[in-house]
Each structure stands twice: as structure tokens, then as C-alpha cells.
Design brief:
Length: 723
Amino acid sequence: MAYVGLGQTSASILGTAAWLILIFVLHPAAYGRLSWLFSVAMLSSSVFTFGLGVVMATSYPEERNEALPGTVVALVWLFAIAGGGVTAGLLALVAETPPDEAFFTGALVFSLSVFSIHFHVLLGRKRYEAYMWGWIGARASALLLPLLLYRALGSVPPMLLGLSASYLLFGITSLGELRHGFNLQSLRGKVAFSAKAWLSGLCGVSLNYLDKILIGLFFPLQVLAVYQFSYRVFLLLTVLPNTLFFYLLPEKSSGNESRSAERVGVGLSFVLAAAAYILAPWIASRVFPGYREGIDTIRLMGLAVVPMTVAKVKSSDLLSKRRADCVLAANLFAAGAGVFGVLFVFVNDFGLRGLASAMTLVQVALVCVLFAFPRFLRGEPRSGRGAALAGLALFSLVAAAFFRTAMPIVRIEEEGAVVQGTLFAMDTVVNVRIRMDDEVKGRALLRESFREIERIERLMSAEDEGAEIYALNANAGSWTPLSPETISLLKRAKEYGELTLGAFDVTVKPLVDFWMEEVKRRGRAPEREELSRFLELVHHRDLEIDERNGRARLLKKGMGVTLGGIAKGYAIDRVCGFLLERGVEGGLVEIGGEMRVFGSKTWRIGIADPRAEGKMIGVIPLRDAAVATSGDYRRYHLLGSERIHHIIDPRTGATAKGIISATVVTKDSLSADALSTAVFVLGIEQGLALLERIGAAGVFVDSERRVSVSSEWSARFWRIPDE
Ligand code: AMP
Ligand code: MG
């Protein structure tokens, strides 16, 4: 049994490590996608193994019928092939998954099934040590192989292939069982049991994966990414309940009560939940920057380790008393509650924190039912008050946390007469605060502001297939009809192209993609000729706008527009305009570090240190104005020691060098946004001259970390001295 426990524990640690490492490698959307496909494969494979593994593991030790392993292995291989095919087909036809992703996911279903029957055979034959090494091997390979393939080929589908190969490699030896022959008679009288085992297995798998499948269907992939990340952190905590379970089950089965182990286990679970709560900010912003959204999610999910531990203790109790039915029923109930929870969160716009709370509440529900069910079945009226109270207490704990942090997608905190909310949009964090005495009205305004930002994102995204800019790029070479709003923003962008002598260029997308994706994948710097090929595709002049007919076109195929350098500013201006129209007297709108404030208050705005996260280089006062910072530290990857980042010098085709952070202050956000990107490209001298010419102010940090401030500003910029 120790081998089994050890195998399981190492497997879950290795699995968790793999998912956490992937965070450093993949874009959140790709990460979300991969977790979705993986979850689909896990669920599908457990559908298509029909509980045969458990039949093998439980019946074989009693009967020693050699025909049994051969038969189940043969059947599972057949089902696995069918299951892989069906899954791939459904994904491609119904879920509109690209063919390669669908195919590789089908392959993964096959391999997971093969691996599953293999380790059940090992269990049945009591080859526990082989079982342990099988799991460790498969998971270690599933950690390394996908990463290697990703490095070599640079896209996500091969990672699925890596996973698939790993499980197949460690499951393929099950084929050896076939030499014992195939005999359906050996399954006689086991069909009912197999069905039960199948269902209960499905419940278990659903508890772990169905939530992710549903979230992937209903929420943006980035939400799934943060959820998956937090869930993996949570899984580290579940080593405790799982180990406890594997210890208690045999102990209890042989009649030992093990009360003190239970108490210590449950006590420890509280310690773990508290530790997760305290460490969450550090984990989510220091260790995994970019997943700050995960702070609350980790905290809420961390609480689940308490009910989960109690549930494991109770399950081991029931199982040792041969009450598997109760455990099955309780799990069924919890899986149902989970589906309901995700839908409920979706319908009510409760967002990520709502999802995390739902997951934790499902564990609470599981505990309650585990305690209530056996008594209910036995018709015992008396006992159970203590258990019910404990369940209720746990429930209230999560509910309290839920209502504290899990207010709608818009998280709103009141501070005096200020209403504030946060949202994840435009690939970053949006923050709106307004002065407002009427709380209800304030919330409604925030919600409307967020809706506006999401609307603009849907319109102006270059990645989202429904967006106008996406259509413009996809149609490069011919005309695309566009809304007046998009046309006018494109016109403004072109004006900044003229004003900055080409330093700002909306058609820079092919170069951004090349540096951020292709060069990252290759891991080496491109040749000059290659860049000049791209340079031919980049010029704002070649974006033609026909305002009268409401259309625009990119002159050459292969060209592409990105509004990344200007859309945030535009959205901020729109929201400020809307709030002012509604009579809001003062407030602040911030999207990913760019912000605009309005009203009579003077705000003190910190400028981030581009090389020390969380630190500031200085503070500026801001009143009725906007500020934007462009930096090489927001999106980048390293090529040797060189930092390749997302701001391109359209004149050279390379990532802009010289400045590492450029902050611009102007009246409105759109110009601050466009200018900060432009002066980042222009460099300090030309940048300062440009700002001076148009009456704007700026603060720059160069690659030697020297700070320059435009002259008008030097008196008002308060520099934080270096330590
Ligand atoms: P920001 O953070 O406002 O400086 O904007 C950076 C984004 O603007 C990048 O992610 C690109 O999408 C886009 N971009 C990069 N270089 C340029 C450029 N030279 N002109 C206009 N947009 C650019
Ligand atoms: Mg900008």
C-alpha cells in the first residue's frame, strides 16, 4: 500500500509541477486552451474505459482467472481507439477545434485509456512497486516531453502529442496480457459492478475536470488559465488529504479507529488553508507574475482543503464499512452541484472568484452529503447534529469568503464615498474608481464602464475573430467595411504616425508577431534580410481609409494592424467621457498601468521601476490629466542576454533600444498612450524634443537606468532616491 500511496503522491506532485512550469512557457490563452483539451481528454478516456480497470483490480485477486486481464486489456484497447476517434471527431465537428488539436486530443484519449488499464492490471496483480514506477515514469515523461516538443516545434498541439506519447509509452506493456487469451465469459456477472465502478470513476474525474471543461466553454480562456493555475497550487495542498486517505483506508479496514491521525490531519488542513491564504499574494505576483488575478482564487480554493480532508476521512470510514454506495451517491451529488455552481457563476457574472468559491462549496457539499447520506439511508433520526453543524460552519466560512471577495466580476469595495471595481480585460487589469455617495448608482456605473471597455476590446482586437480589426487584417489586400468608430480611431492612429515621423505605426503588427512569437520559438536573432522583408509590410501610409464609404484596406497581403499601442488610451477616454456625462464629479480609470483622472482632486501617481517589480522610481502629481507608460518589462522574452520586447522601431524593424521606460503626461489618454509608445521608439533626445514641441511632459529611464525628466516637469517630479 505504501507503494500505491507513494506512487499517487509523486504522480500528483509531478503533474502539478508540469502545469506550473507551463505557466512560464505559454501565453495564458494557450495555457487555458491546453488545460481545456487535457480535461476533455481525461473525462473522455474515463468514459471509454467503462470501469473495466476496476473490475480487473478487484476481481482478479479473488478469482485468479488468467483470461480476465487478457479480455479487459483487449476490450479497453478497442474502446480506446473508438473513444479517441469519437473525441477527435466531436471536437472537430461540434467544438470547432482545429484538426490538428482535435486529432492529438483524440490520441491522448487513447493513450490515457491504455495507461489506465495498464495500472489497473498492475494493481490486480498486486505489482505495487511496478505500479508506483509506472506512474512516476509516465508523469515525469509527461512533464518533459511536451516541453521538449514545444521548444522544438513552437506550438501547442505537439505538446498534446508529447503527453500522449508519455502515457502510451508507460501503458503499452499491457499488451503482454493478450497472450492469456480473450474470453468474454470471464466478465460474466461483473457487468453491473463494472457499471457502478464506471459511474463512480466518472464522478471522481468529473470533480477534477468537468469544471475546467465547462469554464473553457463559458468563459474566456484567460479565465480558465488563472483558474487552472490556482487549482494546481491547490492540488499541492491536497497531498495531505490524499495521503491521509491512503493511510486510513487500510488501517480502518483492519479495524483500527485511528482517531488521532484523523484529528491531526484535519488540524493540519486548517494550517494549510491559512498558509495558502497568507502566501497567495506572494505566489501569484512574485513567483508567477502575470497571474495576479489568482490571489483571491488561490485563497478561496485553499479553503477547500479543509472540507476535502474531512471528506477523505469520512470516505475512508464508509469504504472500510463497505458503504461504497454512499460514497458514490455523495460524489454524484457533488459533481452535480459543481455543474450547477459553474452555470450559476456564469449566469450571475460572478467571475473567477465565483468559480473558485463554487469549487470550494462543492467540497463542502460533498462533506455534508457524506455525513448525511448513510444516516438517511439507515433512517437514523437521532445522531448527526454535530456533523450537520460542522457542515454548516464550513459552508458559512466559504460563503463569507465568497461574499467578501467574490462580488460580481466587478469587485467593488467601498471607501467612504468612493466606489471602485476591477476587471480583467484587454489582457490586463482594469481599475475604475469614482466618487459617488449613492452606492447602488455607483455600482451600476462601474458595470456600464466595464461593459464599454469589453465592447471596445471586441471591436479593436487583432486576435479575436469577431473583431473589426481582425477582419481588416484577414482581408489585407481588399476593402473591409468598418464602423465609424473604428475608422476614426484608425485615422487618429495614422495622425500619430505622421506626427512622430513614423515612430508610431499601427501597421507594425507583422513585426510584433515576428519578434514575440517566431523569434521566441527559434531562439535566435533573425538575419537583416529577413527584417527587410517585414519592413516592406510596415507603413501606416499603406493603410488606406475611405471614410465616405465606411471602409479601409491594407494595401499588401501580409500586412496587419495592431491597436495595442493606442486602444487602452482610447478606452480610458471613452469611459471617462461616459462617467463625466453621467455627472460623476471625480474619479480614476486605469487599464494596465495607463490612467486618466478627472475631478478636482490631485492624485499622486507612482512610476514603476522598470527593473524592480513593485518598486517605484518616482511620484508625479496628476490632476485632470492622463499618464501612460511604455516599458520593455511588460511583455518580453530573453534571447541570450538580450531583452526582446513588444515595442518595435518601425524604422529598423528591431525591438526599440535605448529607453527601458517612457512615461508621458497629457490631457487625454489616447495621446498619452500613443506618445508613450512613440517616444519609447524615438529615444530620449528626439522624444523629449517631440514632447516639448506639442506641450506634453515626460519621464524616461534609459538602459543605464538614468532618469530624464522634461524641463517643464523637473520641479514637480518627485524622484525616489536609489537605495
Ligand atoms: P504600449 O504598451 O502602449 O507602449 O503599446 C505596446 C503595443 O503597441 C505593442 O504590444 C504592440 O502591439 C504595439 N506596438 C509596438 N510597437 C509599436 C509602434 N512602433 N507603433 C505603434 N504600436 C506599436
Ligand atoms: Mg502606448
